[in-house]
């Protein structure tokens, strides 16, 4: 099938940001350099670098990273000739001072992420980033949790603050195919700015849903090498590019350096394989934030409660990003027999 798309797809790699979750934020600077070099050689448009939970995520609650974000950003900046450098920020975890640091370290793009019902807290950060001349993106996380019409209203807020692009972000990898199409098409219809799509492979729909998003008009798509990311990982970049090649979609990336980087650089780093195994599947099934996976497995070990039960309960309680401490709460409740 050939898809006629008016503009080239913008490919945003998240191996060095979402991929941080899969490694408990422990990339070395040299690993980041090697991966960034290959992404640049493959002509990926945007390479994102940050703590997995965004700038300043370095903390007891989210996990400490091996190096500072300035060290990571400055190192990757030196490796990029073609690709733009991006950082992610969640208002409240990161502040405008972190945007200043990232600008100083050389970013071109900032992505401001909020829970899908909280777009209003992105105003200050989006306006500030626009004033700094950054390519500015709004990122509506856990997009499966609200109906499409509400998501559109939240996206319009981000656009009104000045976002160049607003993302449908399937943080839990929970969206079904029709749900993906409906959300992306509705944002495309309602917004003048670009629309993006980011997802997780928890229900094994990573590539399929990204292709559907592109068919529905997404201008930007996120993916990562070997799917390196939270939960079952993100849409695997090399597989997406192979499929888009077959479909005749203009994405501008070279397949072979991506395959080489996925197989030789990234997969060997995956101490816990990034795949749709039982617990990762449960994230998509129960609608739970993908970065809860490793924290939940730790709670299983500590409190002797089945991870799957913890994840189902977290989904029932509608826990969202930032509520990582509730994983322990739920595990303790289940251990005591009261849920
Ligand atoms: C901070 C999160 O990891 C952002 C993200 O990639 C998602 O919600 O998915
Ligand atoms: Mn993600």
From TrEMBL:
Mn(2+) binds at residues 18, 198, 200. Its EC number is 4.1.3.39. It catalyses: (S)-4-hydroxy-2-oxopentanoate = acetaldehyde + pyruvate. The active site is at residue 21. CDD domains: DRE_TIM_HOA. The record marks 17 as: Transition state stabilizer. Residues 9-259 form the Pyruvate carboxyltransferase domain. GO terms for biological process: L-leucine biosynthetic process. Substrate binds at residues 17-18, 171, 198, 289. GO terms for molecular function: 2-isopropylmalate synthase activity; 4-hydroxy-2-oxovalerate aldolase activity; manganese ion binding. Keywords: Aromatic hydrocarbons catabolism, Lyase, Manganese, Metal-binding. HAMAP family: HOA. Belongs to the 4-hydroxy-2-oxovalerate aldolase family. NCBIfam families: 4OH_2_O_val_ald, PRK08195.1. This is 4-hydroxy-2-oxovalerate aldolase. It comes from Persicimonas caeni.
């Amino acid at each position: 099938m050939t898809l006629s798309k008016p503009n080239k797809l913008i490919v945003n790699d998240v191996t060095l940001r979402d991929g941080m979750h899969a490694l408990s934020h422990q990339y070395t600077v040299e690993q980041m350099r090697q991966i960034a070099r290959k992404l640049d050689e493959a002509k990926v448009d945007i390479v994102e670098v940050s703590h997995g939970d965004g700038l300043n995520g370095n903390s007891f609650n989210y996990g400490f990273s091996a190096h500072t974000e300035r060290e990571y950003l400055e190192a990757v900046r030196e490796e990029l000739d073609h690709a733009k450098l991006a950082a992610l920020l969640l208002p409240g975890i990161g502040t405008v001072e972190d945007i200043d640091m990232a600008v100083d370290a050389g970013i071109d793009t900032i992505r401001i992420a909020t829970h899908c019902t909280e777009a209003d807290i992105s105003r200050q950060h989006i306006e500030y980033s626009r004033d700094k001349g950054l390519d500015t993106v709004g990122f509506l996380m856990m997009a499966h949790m609200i109906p499409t019409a509400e998501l559109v209203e939240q996206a319009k807020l981000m656009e009104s603050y000045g976002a160049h692009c607003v993302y449908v972000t399937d943080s839990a990898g929970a969206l079904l195919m029709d749900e993906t199409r409906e959300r992306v098409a509705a944002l495309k219809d309602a917004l003048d700015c670009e629309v993006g799509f980011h997802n997780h492979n928890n229900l094994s729909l990573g590539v399929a849903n990204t292709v559907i998003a592109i068919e529905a008009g997404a201008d930007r798509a996120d993916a990562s090498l070997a799917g390196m990311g939270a939960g079952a990982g993100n849409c695997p970049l090399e597989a997406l590019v192979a499929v888009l090649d077959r479909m005749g979609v203009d994405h501008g990336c070279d397949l072979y350096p991506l395959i080489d980087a996925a197989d030789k650089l990234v997969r060997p780093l995956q101490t816990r394989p990034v795949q749709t195994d039982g617990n990762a599947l449960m994230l998509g099934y129960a609608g739970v934030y993908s970065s809860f996976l490793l924290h939940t497995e730790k709670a299983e070990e500590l409190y002797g409660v089945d991870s799957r039960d913890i994840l189902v309960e977290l989904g029932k309680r509608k826990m969202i990003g930032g509520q990582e401490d509730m994983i322990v709460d739920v595990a303790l409740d289940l251990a005591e027999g009261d849920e």
